[in-house]
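Note on ligand handling. Small-molecule inputs were canonicalized before submission; formal charges were left as drawn, and no protonation-state enumeration was performed. Where a ligand contained multiple stereocentres, the stereochemistry in the source SMILES was retained. For adenosine-5'-diphosphate, this procedure yielded the string shown in the input block below.
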Amino acid sequence: MLRLDRLTRTFREGDATRTVLDGVTARLDPGTFAALYGRSGSGKSTLLNLIAGLDTPTAGHVWLGDIDLTTLSERDRTLVRRNRMGFVFQSFNLIPTLTVRENVRLPLDLARQTDEADVRADALLDAVGLSGRGDAFPDRLSGGEQQRVAVARALANRPELVLADEPTGNLDEVNADRVLDLLAGLAKDEGRTLLVVTHDPGIARRADTVLHLVDGRLVDG
Ligand SMILES: Nc1ncnc2c1ncn2[C@@H]1O[C@H](COP(=O)(O)OP(=O)(O)O)[C@@H](O)[C@H]1O
Ligand SMILES: [Mg+2]
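Structure output:
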């Protein structure tokens, strides 16, 4: 379960202070597909970075289960990120010098869960419709295929929280739909919490719940 408790993030701009997130409170239960929705500049990426433990809030807390990320050391936050979170980025971020299979198993290698890592990677490649492509390098794949690899990779270490920042932003409509279906379906099947950042109302409508940010505050609807 992910719980955001009065999260505030300000940035200094010369002598002024700019409030980018203002008291964001929310709770996402396991198995929930949530959209973090808002216009450009509303604070979505800032909030995602706080949830991922890549940035620390000016005030407030991020709870993942019974762990308060905001009180952990940098090192412990890295471990939580590695062991309990999965990520999908807009630009896929596959490693070009690794094969597709090696990219998918990377989170397992980083978490030192190498037993059966190839089996898990191939099962996930199967699930995203890319069985048989494990030995290829990412540059042989289309954009939609690369993002499906990234979806497989994000789920490799069975993370309780999957974070995706505009995951379909670089895809055409058909591939965007397919990637989102896979991401939402796999997350749900495995009981993961999925948080998808988007400015696309069509994606927000498909989510179980919408965190709608306007100028750094959550609003209803
Ligand atoms: N490190 C920073 N320093 C100052 N302002 C920032 C910083 N990061 C983000 N901002 C500002 O916070 C606002 C929200 O940014 P962001 O979270 O990236 O929005 P979104 O992802 O919704 O487009 C923007 O106005 C941006 O300029
Ligand atoms: Mg952003």
